[in-house]
Structure formats: structure tokens, C-alpha cells
């Protein structure tokens, strides 16, 4: 019966790894997927995560019963505190509802479906460019996806003027997707002053901000600093949505642990919103998995473990920053034509190199280096050993 089913294309990001796995070269390098690697190129399980898992295994009172539809209550509370701040008035006033979801993606999807059912505006503006999955997630959730200008290829920085113009021209009440920090794929974030102007514009147009926080702690190494943009919006008393992921900052990629929070005007509204979120979740996957959320809750509620986590998190962030410096220095040493300062200016896991798809294809063919065709490289996939190989490849690609 399925004979007419046509072959679907690979996912543009995950497909990079498929191609990489097929390559037999000993020099192959995967800079496509945004997963952290050690200096030795190995995936990392944080020590504090191992410790939390041990504690969970040793606790024989733990059972495998279903979680409630909204997930682990303790995890939800701690997640809201982590992103909004322990002293957040919105939390103290019980105006925030938080539900455990399947990592960042699931949080975006549940949030999108809730908005499609209960919000008066169905258009969501996402930055151009953005993480490719945003378009599909929100379209399938039932929203109309439009873009606002974000990145300026000429400066390899923020197109701040274009951003303000587009959000200013958007119909009042539009949903606006914002990357809380470490914008993917560009690594370009607004300054605090620019965030303040964005906030004023969004509030004056009665737009609804929907934050995607996939890299808290990964950008600067500080969990609080990377939440500043979000906290600015919550501090003004207005509404927003927040999709949180623990994939990167706790290295819990495959555990699929994240949270959707909706900040409302009153506790009463928040409670009704939560009741409707349950109606979105129940027919989708019934209730979320228990293990990842238990790891996160174990770490967040214990001050010792929390501190250990912040140290390990900072070490990951610092290694990425070091890779930026090393790559920049290696290109300078080679006299590679062009201004490469954006490599050290951009923030977070990715560098948006400015290499075009032809140059990317050349680097893959001749140097066995894999990345998305938009020229995005994952700095977390680099090491001191592989920087020279990448610098050689970039040099060859731009001087060809
Ligand atoms: N948003 C952004 C901007 C991302 O980069 C990612 C991960 N690549 C996600 C959301 C979601 O990731 P996950 O579902 O693994 O948490």
C-alpha cells in the first residue's frame, strides 16, 4: 500500500551526521550537530549527572509509575526558578505555569499548539535565519510563520535596524520568537541596551514574546547572565512564553528533558492556562518521561550539586571560547583573506562563518569536514588538534 511513498530528504542538520558517518577518512571532522565534545572529540556526560544517576539508582523507594500530564512538579518549579530567577515576582505571585516537555523541541511544539488554540493572533515572527526546525514546529502546531530581519551578512552582526522595522510593522499582538541567548545559527545576540529597545517595542505593540532558551549557561558560562534578556521581559509584568532545554547545559540530549513556562498576568489565568496545556499534551504523548527530569531536579535542589554543575558548565563554555580564539589565531597566522573577527565576537555553540554553500561543499569533499550548508560550524566539535585542519580547509576554500 505504500508503494507511492517517495523518499524524503534527510534533515538538513541531522543529515550532516549521516553523511559524516559514511566517510571513511581518518581526518574526518563533524562540525554539523550542536552537541558538545571534549578535547578528545568524545561526547561528555557531566560528573554531576553521573552522581545524580547513581543516587537515583540507589534509591529503592523510586518507582516507575507514570508522571502527571504536566510532569514532575519539583522539576517544573526548579526550572522556572532557574530561568526567571529565584526572586522572580512572577513566580512569587504564582503567575507562572510550567509543564515538563520533551526537551526544547517539545516545549516549543506544546507552546505553539496552545497558542494556535487560545491566542487571538496566529502569526509568529521568527528571526531570519533561525534554527531550521522552528519553521516546521510552528507550522505543524497551526501557526503562520513569518520572519523578521535579524542577521546582516555584511557586518556578520545584528541587523538591529531591520529587526526594529520588521517588528514595528508586524500586526499588533503578533507572536515573536526570540532566542534567549546564543542565537542559533548566527551566534549573534543583541546587547543589553538593544534588548531593552526590543522589549519596549514588543510591549508597545502588544506583541507576545516566545523565548527559546536552549543554551542557558553555554553562552557566557553564567546561568544568570544568559537569562538576562528573559528576566528583563518578565520584570515588566507582561506575559511571555518560555521553552527551556537541558540538552546542552546539562548534556542530557537524549533524555529529552525540557520545560514550557507561560508567564501570565494573574495566578487565576495561569491556572486556567495550565488546565488547557494538559489538553494539548494528553493526546500527544500522555505524559513525559521520568528519568531526565529526576536527574535535573536532583541537581537543582541540592546546593552542592548545583555548584558542581555550574563549574562543569563553565568549563564547557570556556573550552568553546578557547576554540574561537584558536581558530581566529590560526586563520590570522595563515593570512587568510578577510575579516574573521566575528569568530571571536559571536556567542555560544556556533560560528556563522560566512562561508557559502559552494565553499562548504569544497571543504567536505577535499578536507572531510562536515557542517551545515549555511556555513555554520559547531565550535563544540572542535579541539586544539583539529583547529589547524579546519583553518587549512577554510584558507583553501576562500583562496581557491
Ligand atoms: N532551539 C534551538 C535554538 C536549538 O538550537 C535547539 C537544539 N539544537 C533546540 C531548540 C531544541 O533542542 P532539544 O529539543 O534537543 O532540546
Automatic annotation (TrEMBL):
PROSITE patterns: AA_TRANSFER_CLASS_1 (PS00105)
Segments forming domain Aminotransferase class I/classII large: 27-394
Keywords: Aminotransferase, Pyridoxal phosphate, Transferase
GO molecular function (one): pyridoxal phosphate binding
Record CDD domains: AAT_like
GO biological process: amino acid metabolic process
Gene Ontology cellular-component terms listed: mitochondrion
Catalytic activity field: L-aspartate + 2-oxoglutarate = oxaloacetate + L-glutamate
The enzyme's E.C. designation: 2.6.1.1
Entries under InterPro entries matching the protein: Aminotransferase_I/II_large (IPR004839), Asp_trans (IPR000796), NHTrfase_class1_PyrdxlP-BS (IPR004838), PyrdxlP-dep_Trfase (IPR015424), PyrdxlP-dep_Trfase_major (IPR015421), PyrdxlP-dep_Trfase_small (IPR015422)
Top EC class, one word: transferase
SUPFAM superfamilies: PLP-dependent transferases (SSF53383)
Domain of life: Eukaryota
Cofactor: pyridoxal 5'-phosphate
Pfam families, alphabetized: Aminotran_1_2
Transferase as UniProt keyword: yes
Protein task: Important for the metabolism of amino acids and Krebs-cycle related organic acids. In plants, it is involved in nitrogen metabolism and in aspects of carbon and energy metabolism.
Family of this protein: Belongs to the class-I pyridoxal-phosphate-dependent aminotransferase family.
Additional remark text: In eukaryotes there are cytoplasmic, mitochondrial and chloroplastic isozymes.
Subunit (UniProt): Homodimer.
Protein name listed in UniProt: Aspartate aminotransferase
Lineage: Eukaryota, Viridiplantae, Streptophyta, Embryophyta, Tracheophyta
